[in-house]
Amino acid sequence: MKRVCAAVAAVVALIPGTATAEQEPSSIDSYVADFAETAGYPGVAVAITKDTEVVHLHGYGTATATTPMPIASVSKAFTALAVVQLAESGRLGLDVPVATYLPEFRLTDPRGGAITPRHLLNQTSGLTDGTLPEKSLPQPDDLAGAVQRARQATLASDPGAEYHYTNTNFHLAARLVEVVSGQAFGDYLRQHVFEPAGMRSTTAITRTPRDLPATVHRGHLYAYGLTPAVSEPDRFVAGSDGVITTAEDMARWLAVQRTGGGLVSPEGLALMHTAARENYAMGWQIDDQGRVSHTGIWFTYTAGALMLPDGYGIAVMVDSGVSLGNEGTSQLTEGIAAILHGQQPPAPPSTRPIVDLVLATLTLLSVGLGIRAALRARRWAARATRWRVVRGLVPRLIPLVALVALAELVGGLFGGRDTTWWQTAYYSPALVIWLVLWSAAELAVIAVRSAALVRLSRDRAPLAGTPASVGGPGR
């Protein structure tokens, strides 16, 4: 009852208009609107709190404060809170091996038996995208399937020894919640987290796009200044990045992170905000200034949450995905934080259009040079030596090799994170178009030059029955 009353009090305190922003809302509105236009964001929703009160709540472009959007990996903090709730109730031990609660969790690596819930939440289990490529493997239908899939994993390090960010840790943590509570993960969150926090427009899904509510519109890609609406690729997101919410509800969530909101004790909240390795806590990142944050990245949506030591909380939700030239919402939240403290925010980024302009130029140049080389194939063949043939053909396979290895190359940009080739097309359509057309042009050049060499060889060969020479010695 005490927790319920505290939660109700927090909800009442969060009625919009109960507090006033220290800075003019118009300056924040202007900055976010400019940011969205420059960065190519069709819709942005922002929630700003001070302690447990809402000081700013607004939508821009196609979004409103009540527009439901995925928050991607900002969802991890919800899973962490659910696990801590169960730990505080005595139903789960944070330092008890996971296999105690999930007997089916048996890795091929014997060190897996030492993995605990704390390791999962701190991203220190030893599991990585390299030891279990969770996006490239077949996607499970439920959390039980995710545990079965994880059995094939090895560990990159001993449990607790190193930080490695991977969604698999939070898939396993969500399954712990299911088994220990006896409820489906989404049902548990609704009953023990969302509703007590007053987040009545929030839900959690298992797989995208299959489980997305009808009220969630398709997010967007970015290509050549255009923002086409597309569906999120097929991915398993339960526990790791499957929460769908609104800016209005995120304001309530920020308030929970200040006091516990009756959902967890102050000690439990402090535990969730205490970093283990690489400044990662339980579903949160902690920086050297004591700021608590996490970004969320889908291929069609991005989000971010930032809580400052002076009591301000900022949540941002964007209906445009991660891409080359847009690595998330951190710059937007940092800009808002600067305004709240009377500082000059950084200029909105213009990287996206510049990157795609460069890629478009490279595409036209690559195709043009390919056509030029193909038209000069006969001239090239006439001057060809063995080394010239190798030098003129083999390097032209480079763009094809890059195209085939594109998923690994893009994953390397994110510290070895797993991704599929199709997902890289979401990440940068312009990059994929360039490599496809460049590869096609170079393969065409190889084919035309090879044909020219064959024809030249035939032309130089003596006809059958024709003397090899005329007028030999003695004539």
Give a description of the structure.
The protein has 475 residues and is an alpha+beta fold. It folds into 2 domains: 2-340, 3-Layer(aba) Sandwich (Beta-lactamase); 351-460, no CATH class. The protein contains 18 helices and 13 strands. It has helices at 2-13, 25-39, 76-88, 98-101, 117-121, 143-150, 167-181, 185-194, 247-259, 266-272, 330-340, 351-375, 377-382, 386-393, 398-404, 406-413, 421-427, 429-460; strands spanning 43-50, 53-61, 69-70, 203-204, 207-208, 219-220, 229-230, 235-236, 243-245, 285-286, 292-297, 302-307, 312-318. The chain has a 6-stranded antiparallel sheet, sandwiched between helices. It has a 3-stranded antiparallel sheet with strand order 3-9-4. Helix 3 (76-88) packs across helix 8 (185-194). Mean pLDDT is 90; it is low at 1-22 and 468-475.
Summary, kept brief:
This protein has 475 residues and is of the alpha+beta class.
Feature tags:
single chain; 475 residues; alpha+beta; Beta-lactamase; 2 domains; six-stranded antiparallel β-sheet; three-stranded antiparallel β-sheet; 43% helix; 11% strand; disordered C terminus
